[in-house]
Amino acid sequence: MEKGVNKDASTEEKIKAAAFKIFQQKGFAGSRTRDIAEEAGINLALLNYYYRSKEKLFKIVIEESLGQLFIQLQRLINEESTSLSEKIDKITGLYIDLLKKNPNLPLFILGEIQSDPEKFKKQVGIPDISIQEIVTIRQAKEQMKITGIENIDPFHIIINLISMTIFPFAARPMIKILTKWDDNGFDQFIEERRQLIPVWIKSMLKIEK
Q1: Which CATH architecture has domain 1-52?
Q2: pLDDT value at 130 more than 70
Q3: Which of 44, 69, 70 lies closest to 57 in space, CA to CA?
Q4: What DSSP line would sit under the chain, residue for residue?
């Protein structure tokens, strides 16, 4: 590519979408820039013009996807204007919407974390502080005090909510085999869980509404 040629935004987005798909399918170590270029329908030289290395491309696509999720999650949990009940509904919906768009994401993340958790943490841009410092969970603590379960760390509630949401997507291939569901059947199951998960979490916290 000649110097002075302007980069095209649509080509950049095409490359990022292709990279995200390949990274999810093969993991960072198993992905090649040639695979990404083929998926994007461009030649390797053009991909290298836009993104000089696989590492840089990985950092960008993961930061844009998971980085935004962490920001939204933190904002939702610490938002003063919404009740704890509303937070539970919104967080459940946030995760389900993300995973419906990217059903391979849970297995990809687990693979990268198992491979090198510290490296993944840096690539995603997770701050070097504990989640307890990021998330105050004040309303959860107040609710637990009211219902007499204040000796439980509210972090358990967050992990329960995330686990209930993510596990079906991580186990999606096996669930479909065991139930003989097609994609529509699985989607219906997930939409049912969108309604049920908040009910279960609120029951744990003894929230009536």
Answers
A1: Orthogonal Bundle (1.10)
A2: no
A3: 44
A4: --TTPPPPHHHHHHHHHHHHHHHHHHHHHH--HHHHHHHHTS-HHHHHHH-S-HHHHHHHHHIIIIIHHHHHHHHHHH-TTS-HHHHHHHHHHHHHHHHHH-TTHHHHHHHHHHH-HHHHHHHHT--SS-HHHH---HHHHHHHHHTT-TTS-THHHHHHHHHHHHHHHHTHHHHHHHHT--HHHHHHHHHHHHHHHHHHHHHHHT---
Find the farthest-apart pair of alpha carbons in the chain and give their distance in angstroms, rounded.
68
Can you give the pTM of this predicted structure? Answer: 0.72
Instruction: Count other C-beta atoms under 10 Å from residue 24's C-beta.
Output: 20
pLDDT score recorded for residue 139: 65
Q: Which amino acid is at 48?
A: N
